[in-house]
């Protein structure tokens, strides 16, 4: 495979960098200012801090994976990151349905579509 064939277009790198920064920012917000992200949650309830930190680590891990894949310009790693993104937002979609929260349903569907589109674009470029 030629080097030109294996390289990623700049727009995919830019979108992926945006998602990496977004995930890392959400992680930091959850750790240092959870009330800014979780307005309707009682932050004094028992066990909530544990769940918030678990969520923050999940967001940090995803941001780190995106950043590392971009640094290495690794098509397989970036594909895997978007598959993780797709699975995560598919879960959010079902949570939105169970909670009857239209905003979560719509945003999860949009992010699932974006994830699928990027997986296709990355792999189309790879083949």
Brief account:
Helix content is 83%, strand content 0%. It has 6 helices and no strands.
What is the typical, i.e. mean, pLDDT? 89
Count structural domains.
Answer: 1
Helical amount: over 70%
Q: What's the Cα radius of gyration?
A: 16 Å
The number of distinct helices, counting runs of at least 4 residues, comes to 6
Distance between the termini: 9 Å
Shape: globular
Proportion in β-strands: under 5%
Structural class: mainly alpha
Low-confidence stretches: none
Note the main sheet: none
Q: Could you give the count of β-strands?
A: 0
Query: Which H/E pattern describes the elements?
Result: HHHHHH
Explain what this protein looks like in three dimensions.
The protein contains six helices and no strands. With 127 residues, the protein is mainly alpha-helical. It has one domain (3-126). The longest helix has 25 residues, at 48-72. It is globular. The model has no long low-confidence stretch (mean pLDDT 89).
